[in-house]
């Protein structure tokens, strides 16, 4: 029996490769090696399938971010670095979907807005913790930091697609991390960051 999770994963792969408009339920059934009837038993149509697939991926990503933040067995700077990297991965994935011109706007708005709001909330939480620990400079407008970080990630992603810059997501996030940590941390934070490398 085909599991819904297998269907949604395959659907996301096809949507990312071909675009929403180009993928038909027939294509997906063939890709999975199942009948259309079986596929329709799980999902009434492409719209519902895409929504469920995206929501599942988004939930997984956001749960991972929550786990990183809540893992008190690791020090603050390691968790902050991992949150920023994972947030970058999440935004990179959602941008790939966003660039699909065939997607209905309501699908994008429902899923992508939730991702951005959650990522902003988590980064805000880490900034507050960093301030309390003395790792983040108090002289900054800290309420703007989550928005700035998210904007930097989105700008890099757009530069890659618009200008053909061939930096991979990992390299891009390492660069952003270097910029953010160098400009964001207090002297105490910089020393701890250097020692943690």
Topology:
Elements: H1 4-18, H2 25-32, H3 36-42, H4 46-70, H5 76-98, H6 105-133, H7 145-163, H8 169-184, H9 187-196
Structural account:
There is one protein chain. The chain is mainly α and 197 residues long. The chain has one domain: Tetracycline Repressor, domain 2. It is built from nine helices and no strands. The chain has helices at residues 4-18, 25-32, 36-42, 46-70, 76-98, 105-133, 145-163, 169-184, 187-196. The longest helix is centred in the middle third of the chain and has 29 residues, at 105-133. The radius of gyration is 19 Å and the shape is elongated. The N and C termini lie far apart (47 Å).
List keywords for this structure.
single chain, 197 residues, mainly alpha, Tetracycline Repressor, domain 2, 9 helices
Compact description:
77% of the residues lie in helices and 0% in strands.
CATH-derived topology? Tetracycline Repressor, domain 2
Strand portion: under 5%
Number of domains: 1
Oligomeric nature of the chains = single chain
What's the CATH C level?
A: Mainly Alpha
Count of beta strands: 0
Main beta sheet strand tally, sense and closure: none
Rg calculated over all Cα atoms = 19 Å
Give the averaged pLDDT, no decimals.
80
Rounded to the nearest angstrom, the distance between the terminal CA atoms is: 47 Å
Total DSSP helices: 9
